[in-house]
Amino acid sequence: MKKHYSLQLIFLFIGFTSIAQTKAVEEDLIKRVLKTNLAALEKEDAKLEQSTIHSKSPFYASTPEQAKQLFEKYDLKYDLLSFKMVQLYEDSASVEITQSVKKIQGPPFQNTKMTILQIMKMEKGEWKILNSRIDKVEKIP
Length: 141
Prior knowledge:
3 helices; alpha+beta; 141 residues; 4-stranded antiparallel sheet; globular
């Protein structure tokens, strides 16, 4: 009887370990998408930025034009300061990030630190940004 319980505990441990590893992999993949998005903005690469946005996102169609307008006016630096997984499902997730945006060149601009809830959704096997909600904005020097 003890062997039966021991095997159950081993399989349970293996299952939890597998779930934890899968969650860590998915978190890493999502974090990479968010870093790619910020890097694309910093490099002023509208096509790369749009590749991180889900095609069903409400801002998918307007992203290239908005990026073009931003790139024409400013040279900005973006940093991902923190990343926290809020919820993770098979094909969707929500993460809370804190990012900073600082002006390098351009007209007057307020440098900011923002806390954003990013809603992520799988599209063709890749994580993409579906929507965003800015929860907090702080002015920084």
